[in-house]
Amino acid sequence: MGYFHKIVLLFLPLLLSFLFTKKEQQLYSIHGYAQGTDYSIKYFADSALIAKEGVDSILMKIDSSMSLYKPYSLISKFNSSENGVSLDPHFLAVIRKSFEIFKDTQGKFDVTVAPLVQAWGFGPKPISVFPDSAEITELLKNVGMDYLELKGNKLLKSRPNVHLDLNGIAQGYSVDVVADYLEGKGIHCYMVEIGGEIRLKGRKPDGTAMKIGIEGPAPDGISEPQIRHVISFTEGAVTTSGNYRKFIKSGNKKISHLVNPKTGYPLNTELISVTIFAKDALTADGYDNAIMAMGLHEALTFIAARKNMEAYIIYQRKDGVTADTLTTGFKKLIIN
Fold first, then answer.
1. Alpha helices in the chain (DSSP H)
2. Distance between CA 11 and CA 191 in Å, rounded?
3. C-alpha radius of gyration, the chain, whole number
4. pLDDT, tens only, 197-234
5. Which distant-in-sequence residues (6+ apart) come within 8 Å of 130 by Cβ?
6. pTM metric for this prediction
7. CB 235 within 8 A of CB 200
8. C-alpha neighbours within 13 Å on the C-beta side of residue 96
9. 88 exposed, middle or buried (CB, 10 Å; 0-12, 13-18, 19+)?
10. In angstroms, how far is CA 280 from the centroid of its own chain?
11. What angle do CA 316, 320, 321 make, to 5 degrees?
12. Over the range 29-46, which residues count as b (16 or more CB within 10 Å of their CB) and which as e?
């Protein structure tokens, strides 16, 4: 064997070791502001695979589709139209899911609540007075997803004053779109959070799963909300809907931002917050508001009848004491 061949054989194991040794994965974080709230992305990779500009671009496109606060958005065009508009892929995906949840919850989830949400002071325009019963009755004439029809990619409305508000589901969808973007870049361990709505996947390099704190109102109802439980899982989404953070005070009464599409009035059930675990954030976010419109027993029965859905519920007992309950599946997620 020649001298050259001996050198090659000598360095071959070293070369193979260099080629097949994986770089140590590091934690990368991206933080920003979009859709009226903060967002946070954390992922593990051997190099920085995504940039903040890429995430911002995605979220801006979704805003241009479904933000009520942008007059040029597609949803604003739909609301001002006489008959409807053609939808982009983002809007189309969300409205399809909205029809599905509307039917499944017997109308408790309804994206045509925009006029009611605005009337109670939670829309894009300020109000000076709350609506009276006559105004609510009038507004209800244009509320109901039965007034909508999806034909291909065109969303039609049978009444010109039917207006949409997708705030109860679009943020969960945004989380999923960003999560899919990360996966498309070859990222297999990540957490995407937008305004408290979360989707995560994978285990950290040390083999442990990521942890999430579940927030709830303080026991005294006055202090800042606090972490009630810590959960951990390797794939899925968690979203929360509640009435203890976003409300308007009228005298001693709190007016919830969650409006019942059937009565026209803000929700007034014993439920304080609902945290849903599901396979994706679109599903979890869409159902959490609808379940807030249910009584406690109805909510637990509803969730128990559906696969791949778990819940943690904070409610007020008849004696005024704040209590909580959870499904068996959600209990398995809790580590603290």
1. 3-20, 52-66, 74-80, 89-104, 114-119, 133-139, 170-184, 281-292, 296-304, 328-331
2. 41
3. 24
4. 999 999 999 999 999 999 887 765 656 778 999 999 99
5. 119, 120, 121, 250, 255
6. 0.89
7. yes
8. 12
9. middle
10. 9
11. 70
12. ebeeebbeeebebbbbbe
Nearest by Cα to 66 from 144, 155, 169, 159: 169
Angle made by CA atoms 24, 280, 203, in degrees to the nearest 5: 20
Q: How far apart are the first and last CA of the chain?
A: 65
How many of the other CB atoms lie within 10 Å of CB of 164? 24
Domains and CATH numbers, the chain: 26-68+169-195 (no CATH), 69-168+196-331 (3.10.520.10)
DSSP structure class, residue 294: S
> What are the φ and ψ backbone dihedral angles of 229, each rounded to 5 degrees?
-145, 160
Q: Report the alpha-carbon angle 106-110-114, nearest 5.
A: 155
pLDDT per residue as tens digits for the range 72-85: 999 999 999 999 99
Percent helix, strand and coil across the chain, each rounded to 5? 35, 30, 40
241, 290 Cβ separation under 8 angstroms: no
Instruction: Kindly state the tokens that stand for 189.
Output: 């361990």
